[in-house]
């Protein structure tokens, strides 16, 4: 996998070693001897195993990770134990059968028995979990009265928020796929092109360029804010539209980006609002430096929009990007976040301001989104586009 | 939305009434005065609101549903309360702001406060939840000592397993999209075509034909069992490959289907194994009648494969299909399921047998999958293909 054109030069074995060192170091600090992980991103981080098979399969797999970083993973696709399943994944020691093709909560007895048995065999005493179903957790804990369980999803996302340079290289590889697909889709727009057609071009190119998984396919044509979904609407002369798409690239790291396109020349009012959105976007990027609180970036963008008498972005203007498309740090109003994180070098973020403009009674939403690595001096863009 | 070519004649208002009658009837029987729902499929079922924005956004939204079926939904895309947000969704009375673009467990304080306040205002006493994060649940429950919470995901999936005829019509509409995309992708295969190219054709057509959301894009070219993922492998003369793709159609109902294709004429041993898989598949379909236990279907398929000295399907050979791609009933070995359900009219299922055959030292996996409605007399196929 190391010589794929999509992630040239990334030594996945070295990345695995670094991730494991960070994870097991954190486990030691937190006093945890085991983790039970069900999130495909956490499983990938800890074991390298790819558990993102279908969008809804968020709890079809479970990894049990020991204090030494060695792991076993319950998977839906085998009926026997598989020892040493991946020579490229040295810490993944065993695959074990799990129920197939249903949310874990549909088979709580199966899951509770399997997890309790595995944890008991390992003499687990202090176990962190990311997203284990509450009912299953209750049953596992009842089976293991001497074992303590505690939620650790927020800690794991915080741990993963600051990326290793190899991780940033993989996000950048995903960004190359995603940005190219986005540009091709925007360039394909013409009068009469439907939102579905734009998404078709984008998805096809994400696959052709080697994406692992397509995360979302949003297209807004004459919908208001919150109008994320294509419904067959055809493009009209002079109108703006936006696309917001994402994918995981090889290695499982994601990209999340958006572009506003125009069919022909937009009316002056729309063109002016678009330039003002770009100004707000640039001010947000300029504000995004190490040491700045995330809410400051958010307020900078929205203050600029308000100054131009445009609607502010009615949601968080940014988020982390990594093995999940949307992870920590959140970039939002301070009142909408548990913690207003300080931006640090190694954070990888998406910024995604939105505004809207009325034209002859129709509200057009304008949006842009790129991904950036935070460096010692500011932002380095990871999504390179051929258009503004 | 009712006159979309993808779901002709489906009266979504009538469907909403029927779903609400079923849901509130079940709540009354279960003694629940409220539900807290985070699964996009459960939210759609209860409110009509579309909460599937991105693959990982499984807990970005939360619906609170009262005993009368009226609901409010916390959403990531607004900074103010939105009363009566959808004239087409009469039971959805209000949208409320939630944290944006991160797993709920990253903002447990925000979520716990919002949910506890809403439940307290409604004087909720007995609350069912589908998949609320265990840590957030703990904090909400601590805030509301007089309120009892209980997990109800398995009950909700069981409730939804038997479909209304309008739901079956929507699954069939999704199947039209998915089967057509699959056929076009298989037909595009030629020597040198890469797995990524096949998936590109499939995804583009799913979008062009009006899919709401793409759930998975699996392609196996010369991988063993469990080799779900494209990696750029080119097709070779005489070789089989398989595609397994899914999508949600308009209305949010899913289709999940798979096809094995051949580049040119397969060698005799592979062709024979393929015919034997089709025989096993047909025997499974013939066994799938109301009153039969799901494990019997599974064992029928695998017994036929074993009789032909082929590897059995190493996972569940089927599952329900509805607002999730994979839901109840599970069709698997009795020992891999909490409950070995009896097949009933109105169930909608996928059957997906797999086998494998060695050819000159390479293991080729053969797979097929269609969706079926269970009628009084047996199965009615919902995925219509132009090829066998």
Automatic annotation (TrEMBL), chains A, B:
SUPFAM superfamilies: Creatinase/aminopeptidase, Creatinase/prolidase N-terminal domain. Residues 19-162 form the Creatinase N-terminal domain. Pfam families: Creatinase_N (PF01321), Peptidase_M24 (PF00557). It comes from the Bacteria. Coiled coil: none annotated. InterPro entries: Creatin/AminoP/Spt16_N, Creatinase/aminopeptidase-like, Creatinase_N, Pept_M24, Peptidase_M24B. Residues 170-376 form the Peptidase M24 domain. PANTHER family: AMINOPEPTIDASE, AMINOPEPTIDASE YPDF. This is Xaa-Pro aminopeptidase. It comes from Streptomyces rubradiris.
